[in-house]
Write a structure and sequence with these properties.
Length: 419
Amino acid sequence: MDKTVVELFAGVGGFRCGFNNVKLEDNKVIEEDNWDFIWANQWEPSTKSQAAFDCYVERFGKSENHVNEDICKVDKNIIPDHTLLVGGFPCQDYSVARSLSNEKGIEGKKGVLWWEIAEILEVKNPPFVLLENVDRLLRSPSSQRGRDFGVMLRTFLNNDYAVEWRVINAAEYCFPQKRRRVFIFAYHKSTKYYEKMSKISDEHLIYNEGIFAKNFPIKDSKLDFGSSKIYQDVFKDVVDVSDNFEFHFFNSGVMRNGLISTYKTEPVECSDSVTLGDIIEDDEVDSKYFLLDEKLEKWKYLKGSKRIERKKPNGETYCFAEGNLSFPDKLDVPARTMLTSESTTNRSSHVVEDKFSGNLRTLTPIEAERIQMFPDNWTNIESKAMTERRRYFMMGNALVVGIVKRLGEAISEIVDNEL
């Protein structure tokens, strides 16, 4: 089985950087050939400029298989056959309904990108799938907890996949950021891996033998457990799931043959994490990153605790409250979750004590890249679309490269055993 990959919602290439242990030396990409990325799609609908795609192409080269087009408009039949489908896709409303034009038809909301993944599963049937999303996916929407993930699981079931998932906080496994994301690994029933895992109990899979247990160990303690059924005898189709399924998913779990087992698990935490202090630059940085004295009070206010009376649209008053954030950020722990607004004057931006001068400043773009474990200056490209502000935005949208590197190595071994 060839190690071929299709990368959806590719951004600036986080999956590829991780899977192929990419390095940047003298502005040249050094890429291991372990995985062959044969098709990639990146499209930013909210802007005319396509900075992320420009970065992907500048780093990995131009190719007719690097597609800068709305995935909703791409004919899925033209996508090459592949062994592994990867992507970090948006968390949206995955509700579905009967098609008005066809009583038997099923449709999801237009523009919801999960259905593009679902179509690829149906058309191409890749043996393996690895997806990343925000952890709130497991509890969305608030009005029907677990429905959206239930819709996803039923879609995988309809296409003959088993699924394992885990919420991973990167900092708990020695990576330099407290970033929680859910990773979803699916494998088709035609694979030897599916046959192998079918002989293992759900509990043993989650705690010992699954891809996440082997690469992101958890404690043996059984904190909580839940189970549900999502197959056809219980829910007629994905519309029935959308209308009626509700379930409390824990941070770990597995779905096989429509049976769901979910476990609340605790990580075996790393004792030697990479800290924010480890990744900030030692040398002198540009003065533009330093906080001006006249703005210090504003920064202190943004980072401080507050209680503010506000009004709802109906006129009802309520108290908005938030606690203190460290100011400046502590250098002896991993970075907080980085957002797309990083470096702007807002509560979530990191402020550090500069190692060279001792003064307070925001992060540099290189430090933002290090927090996500990209090579230094990965987003420092020639394209005018990639402004410095966009560099921070790209990193706020990216994934922790070290996590997918570890998973890529594990999946590589799984694929080797398919031979």
